[in-house]
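Re: that chain you flagged

S.,

Sorry for the slow reply, it's been a week of failed gels. I finally had a moment to sit down with the sequence you sent. For the record, here it is as I used it:
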Amino acid sequence: MRYKLTFVVGLALGYVIGTRAGRERYEQLKKGARQVAENPAVRNAAEAAAQNGRDVAGKALHSVSEKMGDRMPDAMAHRVRSMRERNGTVEDDWGTTNT
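Prediction finished late last night. Pasting the structure tokens below so you have them in one place:
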């Protein structure tokens, strides 16, 4: 799916850059993309996917920390412990956010 999306985005960029229709066609495409991005169904789907990703990452963190235990390098073990202690804060040790 990721490769298809990358291809479509590349195709759209190539069209925009190479088109002879100029600025007017670019503005039409931009308006259409904005309408899709602002569509409540699209926003809800993106939000649901992000939440699902955070849930899966949390389960993976728990599973890895249970199986690896003391065999993890110290730096990684420290990060896992600090994430466990915080459990639900907005930012983790890697600088990513749960927005």
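What I noticed first: The two ends are 23 Å apart (CA to CA).

Talk soon,
D.
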